[in-house]
Each structure stands twice: as structure tokens, then as C-alpha cells.
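Materials and Methods. Structural model of GSK3-beta interaction protein. The 147-residue sequence of GSK3-beta interaction protein from Triplophysa tibetana was retrieved and submitted for structure prediction as follows.
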Amino acid sequence: MSRKCSDELTPEEGMEVDCKPEDLLKCSHEERYVELGDVKDMRLEAEAVVNDVLFAVTEMHVSHSLTSGVDVAHINVETREGNRYYLELTEAGLRVVGHAFDQVDEGLSTQYHETVYSLLDSLSPGYREAFGNALLQRLERLNQNGQ
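The predicted structure was written out as C-alpha cells:
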């Protein structure tokens, strides 16, 4: 099993290195994965996606309606504007596959996004605002702590 974490920087600043399991708690969902051959376990990725952005949406949870597996998982999300989306998470990224919880719209043809941040940024001005506010608060705390 191999794990990667880019939060640990070498003297060459930003070089990706392997990390210890306890260091995984510091990694964001894009950096954290369990390698099964060359396939990420999408169930674990989906849980990490939800945990990363739950603060900036009204509701978000991994769906159990369709079978999630090693290669695909589904996520229900309701934006701050009250719009509901059914997301598909695969190796290709995240994309909207429906406009209601637990329902795939076969007629939809949406683009994949590499990150949940990119996807939500394109769907929800409320997400953008919440994310920006959280970032400002974090920067203010760092400034107050003299860092």
C-alpha cells in the first residue's frame, strides 16, 4: 500500500514525498488515497470529499442508493442556493449526473472536474463566498498568532 502526502515538503519546497499514516490526517482529499494496484478506492475518496467541503454547502453525503465501489462513488449535495445535485466520482474526477438526490439523468452530459472545489465553484456562488470567508478567517487567525 502506498500513500502520498504533499503537505510534507523537502528542502526543494513542494516536492511530493511519501508520508506516515498519522500524517494522512493533514492531507486534503486530492492528496490522500489508498492504492489498490492503480485504482483509488472511490468510497474512501467520496468520504474525504464530503468532509473537505461540508462547511460550505447546505447538505452533502455519500449516496448509498447506487452501489459505490472501488472505481465509482456517488455523492448527494445541496448548495447554499437550495439546488440539489447527484455527483459521480471516478478516476476521471467529479461530474454532475443528476439534479435530484439519488437520481441519474441519463440525458445529462457534463464535464468532469478534477476537484470538488472546482465543481462547486462552478455551481454555487454561496460555496464560493463560504470558502472565501473560511480562508479569510484562517488567515486572520494566523496573523493574530504572529505567523
